[in-house]
Automatic annotation (TrEMBL):
Belongs to the EcnA/EcnB lipoprotein family. GO terms for biological process: response to toxic substance. Keywords: Cell membrane, Lipoprotein, Membrane, Palmitate, Signal. InterPro entries: Entericidin, Membr_lipoprot_lipid_attach_CS. This is Type IV secretion system putative lipoprotein virB7. The keyword Cytoplasm does not apply. Transmembrane segments: none annotated. The keyword Signal applies. One of its GO terms (cellular component) is membrane.
Length: 40
């Protein structure tokens, strides 16, 4: 029973981390777009 709970928590943590990294990438892209527009 403990193994199942541990595997579930691990899966949730990994999926959450992926979403966090994805969101961070989008934020960085927005900043890059603003810098490009300012340079033009």
């Amino acid at each position: 029973m403990k193994k199942i709970i541990l595997i579930g928590l691990t899966a949730i943590t990994l999926l959450s981390a992926c979403n966090t990294v994805s969101g961070f990438g989008k934020d960085v892209q927005k900043v890059g777009d603003k810098v490009e527009k300012a340079a033009d």
